[in-house]
C-alpha cells in the first residue's frame, strides 16, 4: 500500500522552511513595490483613499515587511508557529492588497506560498483542537496535508472559474490561440516561437491543450490522495506551468517550486513509510472540532454575503471590478446623447469615455493615434464662440492628454453630435444644474 | 473519535480545506491569499492584439527591444489606442509598453512605426487574419542588451501591411 504522503516518515522541516522562505521573498518584493509605486491612473477607483495614500511611502511598507519577516522567522524556527504564521500572512496580505489597489489588480504569483501557509496553519490548528499542544513537530503532519490541500484548491479554483465562465469558450480552440497571440513575444525566431506558431495555426493542438489544462487543474485534487497520486498530479501541473511559460512567458516560478517541494524532494526514492502513530484525541476534541467547523461554515457564508466581495471580485490586471463601476450618467444627459455609448463611432472617431461634469457633458474621442474631446454646455454658458451650436447648446472641442486635434479632423465628430442633439433637444429638458 | 493517523480523519481534513477554500474563493473573488484565478477564464474567441514596433525592414518586434524613443504623437493611453468593439488588447501589457517608452526617451536614429498588431479569427480552421493600426511614427535605437538575432514575424503567412 502506498504511503499517504511523500513526506510520511520524514521531517517536514524542509517543506515548512521552504513555504515560509517564499512568503519572506514575497514580503520583500511586495514591500519594495509598495514603497515605490504611488497611486495613479492604474489604481483601483474603488480602493479607499487612505489605502492608496500609503503607496510610495517607505514607512508603512517597511513596517509591514519587517513584521512579516518576524513572523516568517517564527515559522522557520517554530517559535509560536501559529501566531508567527498568522503575523506573516497578515503582513503579506496587507502589502499584497495595497499593491493590488495601486496597480489595479492583484498579482496571483504571490498567492501560492501564502495559501500554502494558510493551509499549514489550519492543519496546525486542527491538530491542536484534536491533540492539544504537539509533542515535537507532530502537528506538521496535518499542517503538510493542509498546505497541500490549499495548493490543490488554487488549481481547482482556476478550473472551476473556467467552467463557470463557460465551457464553450474552453472548448473553442480560438480561446487559447488568442491568449498565445496576446502574450507570445513578437518576432520570436526560436524554438518556442515556432511552437507558439504551431499552436496558433493548429486548432486541433490548441483545443487539445485547452482541454488538458482543464483536466490537469481539476485533477489537482489528487494532490491529497496519497504519495503516488500527488507525484503524478504534481508532474502534470509542472508540465502545465512549463507549457504556459513556453507559450505566454507567464512564469509561476513560486508555484513550480512549491509543487516540487510538496510532492517530494526525493523523486527517485520510495517514500520512507508511514508516520509514527499519534496519540488519541484529548478530551473535548469533539467540541473544539465542532467550533472549527462552525467557523469554517461562517467563513463560507460570509464569502458569499459580505459587502467586501463587491471590492474583492474586481477584475484581473487593472480592469475595473464591480466596485470600480463609474457612477451612471444622469438620465437627462443620457437622453441628450440619444443612445450614444462608449465604443460607438461618432464622425469617424471612437468614443472612449463619456463624462458628466458640473454644467457640461464631455466625450473623449480617439481615432488612430489622435485623441481629443468634445464638450457640450448650455448655450452661452461660456464666454467663447463655440465651433458648433444648436438652439440650446454650445459644442467645444479640446485636447485629451496631448495636442489639441486639428479643427478639420474633429469637425465630423462635432457635426455628428450637433445633428443628434439638435434633433432631440426640443423634446428634452436641459440637464439639471446646467 | 478516531486517531489522527486514521485515513478517514486525514481525508476529511483535506476535503474540508479544499472545499472551504474553493467556496470562499468563488464567493469572494481574490483576497490574499485566496483567489479564484479567473484571469483567463472568460472565453475570448474573436481575436487578439499587441503593441509592437514595425522597423524600416518591415520586421515586427517587441517595444522593449528599443530605447531612445521620440515620437511624432503622444503615446499616453496606449491601452486605449486602436481598440474597439472588435479589437481588444491586454491593458497590462499595453501599459508595460507605454511605461517602457516613457522611461526610455531620447533621439534615436532608426525610424520605426509604433503599431497595434491585430489578429481576427475568421473561421474554425483558418489562420487568423492580420491587420495593423499605426499609433505613431517614432525614432529609436536598438537597446544595447537586445538580442542580436534577426527578428521574424511569428507566422510565416503574415506579411507586413
Biggest pleated sheet of chain A: 6 strands, antiparallel
Name the helix and strand elements of chain A from N-terminus to C-terminus, one letter apiece: HHHHHHHHHHHHHHHEEEEEEH
* Cα Rg of chain A: 28 Å
| Main sheet: strand order of chain B | 4-3-6-7-5
- Calculate the terminal CA-CA distance of chain A, rounded to whole Å: 80 Å
Average pLDDT of chain A, rounded to a whole number, is 86
Low-confidence stretches of chain B: 148-161
Identify the strand order in the major beta sheet of chain A.
1-2-3-4-6-5
The overall strand count of chain A is 6
How many H/I helices of chain B? Answer: 2
Beta-strand content of chain B: 25-35%
What summary fits the major beta sheet of chain B?
A: 5 strands, antiparallel
| Structural Rg of chain B | 23 Å
Mean pLDDT of chain B: 80
Largest interface (CB within 8 Å) is between:
A-B, 111 and 83 residues
What general form of chain A does the structure show?
elongated
Structural class of chain B: alpha+beta
Helix content of chain B: 10-25%
Amino acid at each position: 500500500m502506498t504511503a499517504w504522503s511523500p513526506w510520511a516518515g520524514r521531517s517536514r522541516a524542509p517543506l515548512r522552511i521552504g513555504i515560509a522562505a517564499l512568503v519572506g521573498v514575497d514580503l520583500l518584493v511586495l514591500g519594495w513595490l509598495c514603497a515605490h509605486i504611488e497611486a495613479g491612473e492604474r489604481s483601483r477607483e474603488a480602493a479607499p483613499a487612505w489605502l492608496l495614500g500609503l503607496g510610495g511611502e517607505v514607512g508603512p511598507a517597511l513596517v509591514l515587511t519587517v513584521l512579516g519577516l518576524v513572523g516568517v522567522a517564527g515559522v522557520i524556527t517554530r517559535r509560536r508557529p501559529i501566531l508567527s504564521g498568522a503575523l506573516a500572512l497578515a503582513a503579506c496580505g496587507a502589502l499584497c492588497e495595497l499593491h493590488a489597489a495601486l496597480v489595479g489588480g492583484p498579482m496571483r504569483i504571490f498567492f501560492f506560498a501564502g495559501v500554502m501557509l494558510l493551509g499549514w496553519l489550519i492543519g496546525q490548528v486542527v491538530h491542536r483542537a484534536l491533540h492539544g499542544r504537539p509533542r515535537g513537530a507532530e502537528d506538521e503532519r496535518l499542517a503538510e496535508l493542509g498546505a497541500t490541500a490549499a495548493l490543490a484548491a488554487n488549481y481547482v479554483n482556476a478550473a472551476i472559474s473556467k467552467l463557470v465562465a463557460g465551457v464553450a469558450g474552453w472548448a473553442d480552440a480560438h480561446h487559447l490561440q488568442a491568449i498565445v497571440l496576446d502574450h507570445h513575444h513578437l518576432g520570436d525566431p526560436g524554438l518556442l516561437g515556432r511552437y507558439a506558431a504551431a499552436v496558433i495555426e493548429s486548432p486541433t493542438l490548441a483545443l487539445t491543450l485547452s482541454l488538458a489544462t482543464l483536466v490537469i487543474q481539476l485533477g489537482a485534487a489528487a494532490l491529497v490522495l496519497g504519495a503516488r497520486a500527488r507525484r503524478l498530479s504534481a508532474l502534470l501541473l509542472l508540465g502545465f506551468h512549463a507549457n504556459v511559460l513556453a507559450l505566454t512567458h507567464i512564469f509561476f516560478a513560486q508555484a513550480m517550486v512549491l509543487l516540487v517541494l510538496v510532492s517530494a524532494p526525493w523523486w527517485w526514492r520510495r517514500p520512507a513509510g508511514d508516520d509514527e502513530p499519534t496519540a488519541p484525541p484529548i478530551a473535548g476534541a469533539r467540541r473544539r472540532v465542532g467550533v472549527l467547523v462552525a467557523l469554517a461554515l461562517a467563513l463560507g457564508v460570509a464569502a458569499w454575503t459580505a459587502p467586501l466581495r463587491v471590492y474583492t471580485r474586481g477584475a484581473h490586471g487593472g480592469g475595473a471590478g464591480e466596485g470600480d463601476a463609474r457612477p451612471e450618467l444622469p438620465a437627462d444627459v443620457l437622453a441628450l446623447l440619444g443612445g450614444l455609448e462608449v465604443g460607438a463611432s461618432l464622425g469617424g472617431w471612437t468614443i472612449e469615455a463619456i463624462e458628466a461634469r458640473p454644467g457640461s457633458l464631455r466625450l473623449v474621442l480617439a481615432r488612430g493615434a489622435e485623441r481629443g474631446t468634445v464638450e457640450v454646455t448650455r448655450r452661452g454658458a461660456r464666454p467663447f464662440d463655440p465651433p458648433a451650436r444648436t438652439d440650446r447648446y454650445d459644442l467645444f472641442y479640446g485636447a485629451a492628454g496631448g495636442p489639441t486635434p486639428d479643427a478639420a479632423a474633429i469637425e465630423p465628430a462635432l457635426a455628428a453630435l450637433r445633428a443628434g442633439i439638435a434633433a432631440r433637444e426640443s423634446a428634452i429638458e436641459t440637464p439639471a444644474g446646467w | 473519535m478516531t486517531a489522527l493517523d486514521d485515513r478517514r480523519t486525514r481525508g476529511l481534513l483535506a476535503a474540508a480545506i479544499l472545499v472551504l477554500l474553493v467556496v470562499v474563493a468563488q464567493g469572494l473573488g481574490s483576497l490574499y491569499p485566496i483567489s479564484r484565478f479567473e484571469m483567463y477564464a472568460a472565453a475570448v474567441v474573436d481575436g487578439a492584439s499587441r503593441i509592437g514596433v514595425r522597423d524600416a525592414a518591415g520586421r515586427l518586434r517587441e517595444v522593449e527591444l528599443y530605447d531612445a524613443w521620440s515620437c511624432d504623437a503622444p503615446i499616453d493611453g496606449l491601452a486605449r489606442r486602436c481598440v474597439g468593439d472588435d479589437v481588444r488588447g491586454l491593458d497590462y501589457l499595453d501599459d508595460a509598453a507605454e511605461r517602457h517608452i516613457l522611461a526610455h526617451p531620447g533621439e534615436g536614429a532608426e525610424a520605426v512605426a509604433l503599431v497595434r498588431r491585430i489578429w481576427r479569427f475568421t473561421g474554425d480552421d483558418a489562420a487568423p487574419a492580420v491587420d495593423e493600426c499605426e499609433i505613431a511614427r517614432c525614432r529609436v535605437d536598438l537597446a544595447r542588451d537586445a538580442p542580436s538575432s534577426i527578428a521574424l514575424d511569428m507566422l510565416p503567412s503574415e506579411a507586413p501591411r
